[in-house]
Design goal:
Number of helices: 5
Number of domains: 1
Helix content: 40-55%
Shape: flat
Structural class: alpha+beta
Order of helices and strands: EEEHEHHHH
Strand content: 15-25%
Radius of gyration: 18 Å
Length: 167
């Protein structure tokens, strides 16, 4: 059962009137949209269970990195009760999904990209790219991973102001 095929999917849904995106895994014999909270399936790929889990972890880390960076920069990004905020456009999530699904097919590239993604969790890859610290394919993948983290919402940033403790 461990190696049984699974669907890795990207879908949209609604929970208590609140929209969300979700990337998940379902058994191949289950219809993804049987879940009453899901509305539409935007990506669906049949792959092995372990592969699906690894790719899902990479996608989630990429999305978490992106959301964390946007929040650090004070952009207003919703936090739905489940899934990923509709504040992130579908095209951005599709690009992330497609990149990690595609790169998984090349084990050497996958390992390098996962390493770069983990570094990206702590620091932007821009400095490594510009300083010529990365060469060849690592540089090419770093540029692509950095691109997956460059989305900026059109909504205005929320500038946090510290009110004085006394008037």
């Amino acid at each position: 059962m461990e190696s049984s095929p699974q669907y890795l999917f990207l879908a949209s849904g609604v929970n208590d009137g609140e929209g969300f995106w979700i990337v998940g895994i379902k058994n191949c014999d289950e219809n993804i949209l049987e879940d009453e909270k899901l509305l539409d399936c935007h990506r669906k790929e049949l792959i092995g269970n372990e592969s699906a889990k690894e790719i899902l972890l990479a996608i989630n880390l990429n999305v978490d990195n992106l959301l964390s960076e946007l929040r650090k920069k004070n952009y207003l990004i919703g936090s739905p009760s489940m899934g990923i905020s509709f504040d992130i456009p579908l095209e951005i999530l599709e690009n992330i999904f497609d990149f990690w699904l595609d790169i998984y097919k090349n084990q050497e590239a996958w390992e390098a990209c996962i390493g770069l993604l983990k570094v990206r969790k702590r620091i932007p890859l821009k400095n490594l790219i510009e300083s010529e610290s990365l060469k060849g394919n690592s540089k090419k993948w770093a540029i692509k991973i950095e691109t997956l983290h460059t989305y900026v919402p059109s909504s205005v940033r929320v500038d946090k102001s510290n009110d004085p403790m006394w008037d």
